[in-house]
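Researcher: Can you fold this with zinc ion in place?
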Amino acid sequence: MQRPFGHNLVPMTVGDLSFFPTSADAESRRAWLIDTVASLINANMVGLQPVVEDTPSGRRPRLGWRFVALVNVAYLHVAHLAVGHGELARCEECRAWFPRTDARQRYCPPGNRKALESRCSQRARARRLRATARQREVRG
Ligand SMILES: [Zn+2]
């Protein structure tokens, strides 16, 4: 694999991990970071295979994926995010990262797809309601 380092910018290597010298210029650090992230993502998508498959509804066939391990699918999602298909956001309540599907989304999505609201969103809304109730009590 071609590495984007100049001849004077050699990463330190410990086992399989490489650490870039912090004295390197910003563009070299950026190139190293992208190369490292791409290597991690690519290595974990090796078990994926695109397949054209029939749909249960009988409409047009769709493009699907076969995988060796579920982690391959997880990295496919990471790859989509890495190339700009989708956006990552941080939950304002629990600080966890999540794929944002709507620009107004401030909290992580519900774990149960049938739930309309995540626990974080419920917790934040309850806190806002309590604060509003307290303000009303203070004002009388
Ligand atoms: Zn959350």
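Model: Folded with zinc ion in place. Residues 119-139 form the longest helix (21 residues).
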